Amino acid sequence: MQTLIRRSAAYFIPARHCVHTSTAPLIRETGLYGFDNLKTAKGFRRMVDDAIERSNELVSYIAGMPSGPEIIDAMDEISNAVCTVIDSAELCRHTHPDREFVEEASNASLRINEYLHYLNSNCTLYHAVVKAEKDHHLLTEEAQRAAHYLRIDLEKGGIHLSPEKLDRVNQLNTDIVRLCREFNENIVADPGHVDIFPGSRVPKNLHHLAKPIYRPSGQPRLSTVLDGNKRERGFRLRTEPDALCSILQLASDPEVRKLAYVRGNSVPRANLVVLDKLIAARHEFAEIVGYKSYAEFALKDNMASSPEVVLPFLLDMSKMVRPKAEEEFKKILDFKREISGQLDEGLEPWDEAYFTRLMKSSAHNFHNSVLASYFPLPQCIEGLKMLAESLFHVKCHETPLAPGESWHPDVLKLSLHHPDEGDLGYLYLDLKSREHKHPIFAHFAIKGGRRISETEYQLPIVALVCSFSGSNFTSVMLHHSDVETLFHEFGHALHSLLSRTDYQHFSGTRVVLDFAETPSNLFEYYSWDYRFLRKFAKHYSTGDPIPEELVKSMLGAKNMFAAIELQRQILYALIDQTLHGAQLSSTRDTSSIVADLRREHTCWKYVEGTHWHARFSHLVTYGAGYYSYLYAKCFAATIWQKLCQQDPLSLATGSSLRTKFLQHGGAKDPADILNDLVGSGMIRNQNGGIIPDITSLAEEMKL
C-alpha cells in the first residue's frame, strides 16, 4: 500500500509528543515500549485518537500554505505521529502474549490505515507538497528529496484521480491490507502435520518436535489418540517451516520425508484463494493509478526502475548459475545412488536436505550439533555488542526495563552509547520462540530518528525479533544458520540506530526496497569470519573459543551447494515478478506458474498437488520486490571484498560504513552511497535502471 509513510523494507516506526522512558532520567512506571498510553491494551485506542488529532492540527496548519521548509517539517511530523501507532501495533500483534493487547493492536492498525486513506487523498496536502518542491531554493538537499518523494508517493496513491476512482483505490488498499494479514495469519494457524506409524520410523533427534499418538493394532490409517491397551504408538509431526526443515534433514526413512514434504508444502490451502484475491487487487490498483502491472508500479522508484530491468537481470543470473547448480545436483544424485546401491534411482525434492547434510558431514567432518555448542544465545548477544564496539566505538549497555515497558520476561533492552556523541538509540531483543508469538525473524523500528530542533534529536528505538527454540534463555544453542540470521537482523537494526537523518521519513531502513537488504546481507559475513567468531563463539561448558579448523569446515560445507541455493533465490524472485507482472490468464492458476518456473530454472522436480508458495510470506511483504535480496547479495559481496575483508573489525572500516553508508538512511541516493563507499564499477545502468555488478559474488561462489 502506498502512503505518505515510506515503509521500512524490513519491518517497521513512533512520535515526539509521547513521553518515552528511554530518554527519561528516572525509571518509573510506564506503558508498553515506554509509551504512557500503553499501560493497558485499550491504550491503543488513545494512541490512535492522539495521532489523528495531532495530524489533523498539522493538516490545518499546512492548508495555510506556510514556507516550503515548514510544510516538509509538518508532513514529517504527521508521518511520525501515524507511524507511532502503525509500528507499535505491528510489533505488538506479532509478539505480545496477551490476547487483549494483540486484538487492540490489530484494531488500532486497521483504524490508522483507514485514516491514511484520508491523508493520501487530501488534495490540500498534495498542493502544499508541490509548492514546497517548487520552493527548492529554500530547502536543504534532504528536504528537497523529501518533497520529491512525498509528491511521488501521493501521485502513486492516486491523488490525481477522479473522486470515484480514488474511492475505489482506497477500498483496494483496505482490501490489500486485510488480505496480507489474512495470508500471514493462515500460515500460523495451519502449519500442517503428518502422522507416522510405527513411532520407530521417527529418529530420536526429532522427538522434541513430535507428539505421541496411538492407534489400535491392525488399523493402519487411524491416527486418533485412543485409550485401551492394544494400541500402536506413533508420532504426529508438525510441518511448519522450521520443523519441516529438521524432518527433511534428519529423517532417514524416505517415506517419512516424502509425507512431511508433501504435507508441509500443501498448507495452508486457504491461501491459494487469498493470494489470487491479493494479486487481483494489486493489479487492479496498479491499473487504476496508471501502470500496466503491479510490478511496474512497485519498481517505479527503486534502483531497478522497471520489470524490464529486473527480469533480464534474473534471467542472466539463472543462466550464469545453471552449470554449477547442475554439477552440484549430479553430485547429490551420485551420492544417493552410492548410499542406496540403486544406480537407476532418481533424486526427489525431499532428498535434498537429507543427503546434502550427510555429504557436508562426510566431506568436512561437520556436525551441526558440535557447532551449536559454541553458540549459546547469551554469547551471541555478546558478539553483537563486540561488533558494534569494534566497528563504531559504540558500547551496548544492558538497560533495566521500566515497569510496564516490556511485553515478556525474555525481552532485553540495550542502549547504544558513543563516548563523544552520547546515547545513539535503544534496542529491544526478543529472541526466543514461545507460544502465541509469531515465528518471525524481523526488525521493527518502533521510533525513527529525526531532527526536532538545532539541539534536539529524536533517538531511534528498534526491536529485533527472532524465534530461536530452547527451554529457557540461557539454554538456547543456535545452529550456525540461526547465528547468520541474527547478524542479518542486527544489520537492519544498526541501519536504523546509526542513521542520522533530519526526517524520520528517511530514517534507517526507509530506503528504496532494492537497497534495504544491503546492510543486513553485509553483516552476515561477520558470522562466517574466524577473526571475529573467535572473540565470542565459545563452548558452552569449557569456555574454549571455536577452533579455526571447525570454522574452515563450516565454510567448506557452506560452499558445497551454494549454486543450488542461489538458483533457489533466483526462482523465488522470478515467481514474485511473474505473479505480480502482466495480468495472469484466468485459465492459469498460481500453482501451475510456480511449477513451470521451477522446472525451467532449477534441476528439481515439481511435486504435483503441492503449493509451497501458499506460505511464502515474502509475496505479501515484498510484493514484486523479492529480487532485492539478490541485489543485496551482489552489493554486499562487493562491499565486503573491497572494504571489509582485509581488516573487518577496524574502526577505519566501521567509520567508512557509518559515515558513507549507514548514517544516510534514505536521505541520499543509493547509487551515490554505493559509489562513495567503494568507488565506481559497483553498479551498471541497463534499460533505464540500475543493476548490480555481479563480479564479486561470482568470484566468491567460483562461478
UniProtKB/TrEMBL annotation:
<dbReference type="InterPro" id="IPR045090">
    <property type="entry name" value="Pept_M3A_M3B"/>
</dbReference>
<keyword id="KW-0479">Metal-binding</keyword>
<dbReference type="GO" id="GO:0005739">
    <property type="term" value="C:mitochondrion"/>
</dbReference>
<dbReference type="InterPro" id="IPR024079">
    <property type="entry name" value="MetalloPept_cat_dom_sf"/>
</dbReference>
<keyword id="KW-0809">Transit peptide</keyword>
<comment type="similarity">
    <text>Belongs to the peptidase M3 family.</text>
</comment>
<keyword id="KW-0496">Mitochondrion</keyword>
<protein>
    <submittedName>
        <fullName>Probable mitochondrial intermediate peptidase, mitochondrial isoform X1</fullName>
    </submittedName>
</protein>
<keyword id="KW-0862">Zinc</keyword>
<keyword id="KW-0378">Hydrolase</keyword>
<dbReference type="InterPro" id="IPR024077">
    <property type="entry name" value="Neurolysin/TOP_dom2"/>
</dbReference>
<dbReference type="GO" id="GO:0006508">
    <property type="term" value="P:proteolysis"/>
</dbReference>
<dbReference type="Pfam" id="PF01432">
    <property type="entry name" value="Peptidase_M3"/>
</dbReference>
<dbReference type="InterPro" id="IPR033851">
    <property type="entry name" value="M3A_MIP"/>
</dbReference>
<keyword id="KW-0482">Metalloprotease</keyword>
<dbReference type="GO" id="GO:0006518">
    <property type="term" value="P:peptide metabolic process"/>
</dbReference>
<dbReference type="InterPro" id="IPR001567">
    <property type="entry name" value="Pept_M3A_M3B_dom"/>
</dbReference>
<dbReference type="GO" id="GO:0046872">
    <property type="term" value="F:metal ion binding"/>
</dbReference>
<feature type="domain" description="Peptidase M3A/M3B catalytic">
    <location>
        <begin position="249"/>
        <end position="678"/>
    </location>
</feature>
<dbReference type="GO" id="GO:0004222">
    <property type="term" value="F:metalloendopeptidase activity"/>
</dbReference>
<keyword id="KW-0645">Protease</keyword>
